[in-house]
Amino acid sequence: MDDALSTEAEMVHARPGRLREFWFYFRENRGAVIGLWIFAAFAFLALFGPWIAPHDATAQFRADTLVPPFWQEGGSWKYILGTDPLGRDMLSRLIVGARYSFFVGVVVVSIAASGGILIGLIAGFAPQWLDSIIMRIMDIILAFPSLLLALVLVAILGPSLTNAMIAIAIVLQPHYVRLTRASVLSEKQKDYVTSARVVGAGYLRLMFITVLPNCLAPIIVQGALSFSTAILDAAALGFLGMGAQPPTPEWGTMLAEAREFILRAWWVVTFPGIAILVTVLAINLMGDGLRDALDPKLKRS
Amino acid sequence: MLNYVLSRLLTFIPTFLGVTLISFAFIRVLPGDPIMVMAGERGMSDERYAELSAQLGYDRPMYAQFWEYLTGVLQGDLGNSFVTKRPVWDEFFSLFPATLELSLCAMIFAMALGLPAGVIAAVNRGKFFDRALMSTALVGYSMPIFWWALLLIIVFSGNLGWTPVSGRIDLLYYFPDPTGFMLIDSIASGQKGALVSALRHLLLPTIVLGTIPLAVIARQTRSAMLEVLGEDYIRTARAKGMSPGRINGIHALRNALIPVITVIGLSVGTLLAGAILTETIFSWPGIGKWMVDSIFRRDYPVVQGGLLLIAVMVMVVNLTVDMLYGIINPKIRKR
């Protein structure tokens, strides 16, 4: 009898899993769910692009240069979205190009977030003087417009996709430092941290096991937002000739190559841009959904 | 209050030194020897190389060079461009009005559309207008503006032939530019059609550069308005029977504007980054294009000086916004 009662009580009071709870709130935002699906498709193309693409992304069909998309006069089903000035299939290049943007997003966010979180944790726990020094350095990086700083950094390191990623990661990292530090400072005041300290937890344990998990919500949202910023900036650098180099089918680089044909062949310019826009839009939609789902203040009770 | 201002000013000094150090250090690690760049294709004898190196101070220790650079910067001396041989300072300020004019127009465009859009969305929260406006804003926010520029060129310059593709004014017109602002100078010149030509050149770059600020302002205005509309004094105003237009337009918007103005002030950096792309695409002779060209030409003094001046400008604007915010909102001061 007692047993039955207690299990029943447990069932009533058992909290749904964190993930479950998150999904409950995330699902309410229809835009975010659409964004998630598009992002999933984007990730799928990034992983399996070369096997899905109808043609080789760098193969030049010299007989078929600047073929329009299939629904226009002169277009054919062989090249669904037409071909570029060198006779390369647009659709294949776009599909294979997904992997560069995805890669840029993943690498930039990993570098910027891991570095930023570490520095932010240190700043939050460090004595006043070290904290001030770290934050001044971050202020200095933030004083430069991000694209300009990335541009100069790439000019120093030499134009390539790898260097563009490093430059963008450096530029985005101060945002993580500031966010982490701010959450650490507010969490540090709370009783559970004091009690952990009283029990004898060392600094490393306090930083990574006690405090960090409770600071993650805003960092995750920032992660989504900087994923899209990274894709945009890398494409912009590619467009300026300072990112991925031709013949890489990176979307920004494709736009740069297509620039002189804008008045003759609209499809060469239009499709890579749509690819960038849709991807970035999907990630931003997801980011908005994440923010609403993770921010307890906004949750409708 | 004075304490607040002073403490803010004090943090400015180390940041300024750091920015100077970074723009100095960048150029020292750039690949390629600056002196060989000056020599160009012809090459240079060893004696001449040593002579130039001594003349430019490159043979001295790093810290001495930095000290010299810093004292030069404080006196407004940023060195001369390798390519044009003119002082970087002069070049910057002769091109700056073009960027300022474009940025101001973009900002006016963004505010003129963004503020009403945000207010309308907030007032119609959850309804059709709100959704349509906020979806559009998110698209604008996600826009790769270099592609947006090409698209607008295809439609308005290519298909419709309404706007020119590059520059600030038709070559037909030539007049002195005392202010550097094409709109003002073209009126002052009194030449027929000059102003129209300048406006037509300005239209597309303004839209392109203003798109992201427009989206940001619309989103920010909406969320600030929603917050304010929930306040007690709005309910009181409503209870008194005040018209919705008056409540939304005057009581609510005025208070919602504070965070919006901060966002506008802080978007100077975004605007300058956007100017790099916009000016490059439209061949707009401002500092964005100047910086990109100099990076490609490896014109080190220009890259160095431009980087520094732009960063200092962003810092000054941010500092001003911070202080204004402190004046408006006393809660910020205590920290």
Automatic annotation (TrEMBL), chain A:
Query: Can you name a GO cellular component term?
Result: plasma membrane
Q: What is the annotated localization of this protein?
A: Cell membrane
The domain of life is: Bacteria
Report TM segments: 32-53, 100-126, 147-172, 192-212, 224-245, 265-287
GO molecular function annotation: dipeptide transmembrane transporter activity
Share an example GO biological-process annotation for this protein. Answer: protein transport
What keywords are assigned to this protein? Cell membrane, Membrane, Peptide transport, Protein transport, Transmembrane, Transmembrane helix, Transport
ABC transmembrane type-1 domain residues are: 98-287
Indicate the principal place this protein occupies in or around the cell.
membrane
The topology of this chain with respect to the membrane is:
Multi-pass membrane protein
Q: Which family does it belong to?
A: Belongs to the binding-protein-dependent transport system permease family.
What is the protein name given in its UniProt record?
A: Dipeptide transport system permease protein
From TrEMBL, chain B:
Q: Which GO terms describe its molecular function?
A: dipeptide transmembrane transporter activity
Topology relative to the membrane, per the entry? Multi-pass membrane protein
Q: Record's GO cellular component, any one? A: plasma membrane
Q: What are the residue boundaries of the ABC transmembrane type-1 domain, all occurrences included?
A: 96-325
Q: Which key words are in the record? A: Cell membrane, Membrane, Transmembrane, Transmembrane helix, Transport
Q: Where in the cell is it found?
A: Cell membrane
Q: Where are the transmembrane segments?
A: 9-30, 100-123, 135-156, 198-218, 256-282, 302-328
Q: Which InterPro entries match?
A: BPD_transp_1_N, MetI-like, MetI-like_sf
Gene3D superfamilies linked to this entry = MetI-like
Is the keyword Cytoplasm in the record? no
SUPFAM superfamilies in the cross-refs: MetI-like (SSF161098)
Q: Per the record's keyword annotation, is Transmembrane included, yes or no?
A: yes
Domain of life where this protein originates: Bacteria
The UniProt family comment states: Belongs to the binding-protein-dependent transport system permease family.
Tell me the protein's name.
Dipeptide transport system permease protein
Source organism per UniProt = Sulfitobacter brevis
